[in-house]
Amino acid sequence: MSGGSDHPKPFGPNTQLVRAGYDPFDYHGFINPPTVHASTVLFPDAQTMEQHGQKYTYATRGTPTADALCNAINELEGAAGTILVPSGLAAVTIAFLAYLSRGDHALVVDSVYGNVRHFCDTMLARFGIEVDYYDPAIGPDIEALFRANTKLVHTEAPGSNTFEIQDIPAIAEVAHRHGAVVTMDNTWATPLFFKPLDFGVDVSIQASTKYPAGHADILMGTISANDKHWRQLKRANGALGMAGSPDDAYQVLRGLRTMGVRLARHQASTVAIANWLEGRADVARVLYPVLESFPGHGIWKRDFKGAGGVLSFVLATDRKDDFKSKAQRFLDELSLFGLGYSWGGYQSLALQVDLSDRRVLQPPEEGPLIRLQIGLEDIDDLVADLERAFAAAALA
């Protein structure tokens, strides 16, 4: 009789990433799953067809390739089920459509991804769904914003571009007392650094475009729900007919295997560059939750196991009318940092952030806001590139 525990020690995160979602011996020992290209699935007889009496019935409802990725995400998220959709934005909007109806009210964090705000202000408004935006620092005081018809609270932590950290457990507790579902965009941290469903969130959303895929060549989103909310999400997705492609699912699963080591590199480089930026006189503020100077640092340290590789900083200037030209001089001098949207890939990226759509939060007054995605390049090379950009921005 063994003296060991009946419950083996859980695997570490990188071991889990390597193994999750697919057993090679389910398919002749090949280490990666097959990429199943399909629309039609055949049935052996009419009765099986009538009763949908087999695992696969039509490709929008799942394939072996999609299942391999969904199983892996379920394991990482601790979810009852996951669906794959063509983009991160689609993941958020489908989650909203799954749980909101005409006459409902939703609370959405003011630091939400800008395209989600556009969806709320256009499509949801057309459907007769009201949305109010709230301060990400509101915590349990969000209770004052609830109405009798508030059915959903959307969170995003850190917030898009400005990286506000939310007190997710406090918000979730209030929302659940009022019978509202809690959704969260967790793209920045991934389930390796924050597991939303462990903190009271009902539906966890990732833009797999970013760190899971990791190579700036795939668009995909995942939506993962707890047991209480999974069936409603699955029904809504079936009605909408959304599905991720098999090639993209294969590529995301392949990227997932190395996500842990890539995230460690992204994080280490970003922390180093954040500290370097904070010591510069031509930087008014650095927005990155790891820094002790950041207003949400305490909650980040309490709840998160790590940090993503995206930060912002305020480029200091004395002239408000010089914001755009100063930012453009900075950006145009960069050579290693590409000028592009998105993030999560191997190359460093930069852009000027537009916060004109915010309803509650005010944009920085000290200068333009620059967002950096810190890629996998050598830190010394990135610092030298930024040094040249700061020198260019300083020119009159």
UniProtKB/TrEMBL annotation:
Highest taxon, organism lineage:
Bacteria
* Cofactor(s) named in the record: pyridoxal 5'-phosphate
The alphabetized list of GO BP terms reads:
L-cysteine catabolic process to pyruvate; transsulfuration
Query: Which keywords does the record carry?
Result: Lyase, Pyridoxal phosphate
Per UniProt, the enzyme's principal EC class comes to lyase
Q: Name one GO molecular function term.
A: cysteine-S-conjugate beta-lyase activity
Q: InterPro entries under this entry?
A: Cys/Met-Metab_PyrdxlP-dep_enz, Cys_b_lyase_bac, PyrdxlP-dep_Trfase, PyrdxlP-dep_Trfase_major, PyrdxlP-dep_Trfase_small
Pfam families, alphabetized? Cys_Met_Meta_PP
Reaction it catalyzes:
L,L-cystathionine + H2O = L-homocysteine + pyruvate + NH4(+)
EC numbers on record: 4.4.1.8
Residues with PTM N6-(pyridoxal phosphate)lysine: 210
- NCBIfam families per record: cysta_beta_ly_B (TIGR01324), PRK05967.1 (NF004626)
Q: What family is reported?
A: Belongs to the trans-sulfuration enzymes family.
What is the protein named?
Cystathionine beta-lyase
Give the taxonomic lineage as stored in the record.
Answer: Bacteria, Pseudomonadati, Pseudomonadota, Alphaproteobacteria, Hyphomicrobiales
